[in-house]
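Margin note from the TA: students keep mixing up input and output lines. Inputs are the sequences; the output is the structure of the whole complex. Example:
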Amino acid sequence: MATFDDYVKELRKGVKKLAQELVDGLQADAISDMNAFLRKSERDLKRWTRQLADGAITRQDFTDLVQAKKALAELHELTKAGVADTKLDRFRSDLISLLINTAMKVYL
Amino acid sequence: MRGYHNRRQPAARLFLALCLCLAACVPLIGPYSPTAYKNATGLKAETLALMSKATTPYPDNEGKVEALMVEIDKAYEYVHGIPSNDFSARQWAILKRPDGDLLGRFFGRWRVEGTLKPVYISEFKEIISDAFDEIICLEANKKAANQCLK
């Protein structure tokens, strides 16, 4: 007959694995998102400064585009924060499944 | 007896922590909404199409701009009414703000200047397209993990 300690031991293994996946995933995503966003902004800024120098866009156009890019960065931060919350919600849902499935595995 | 308690304490603490976690399981973020997703994808296409017309006089398009902004207001009100949906609602608010730097800036300049240059329209459309993609990406991730972040 399995004891409650056996159940907790199994749970601990599962929780550790879930937490590791969550933390590794969030860190890797955050770094990759930030790098991609910086690369994209750099490309845009290079193009806009060239267009400004060539007279293709005015000073006002350039200012508008940079300000719009800043607003886009705000949206991006909100997406990142929201996506992190969706991951945490899924983690909690997986934790509930783990509690139930581990009990079934250990006791039945 | 004391040893027995010491052995049981870590297990009891873990179990208690898990129970507390489960008890506090109010979702951190609102649920996926097919309507919100459809609003965002549909309005993205409509907005970009209308922006392309900014080489033509604003008075010829004024009614369409106003109608579009009403639809965007409705999309904002929809997501704003969903519980725990603050991130999505804030995204729509930034996008639509009349004195803001996205749609407000573009349509404001079109109204004041009458027409806009193709190069400015093209560059601004890319930003607006990305802005809608951010809203769409967040909504998609509520349904399932999606690698749509740029």
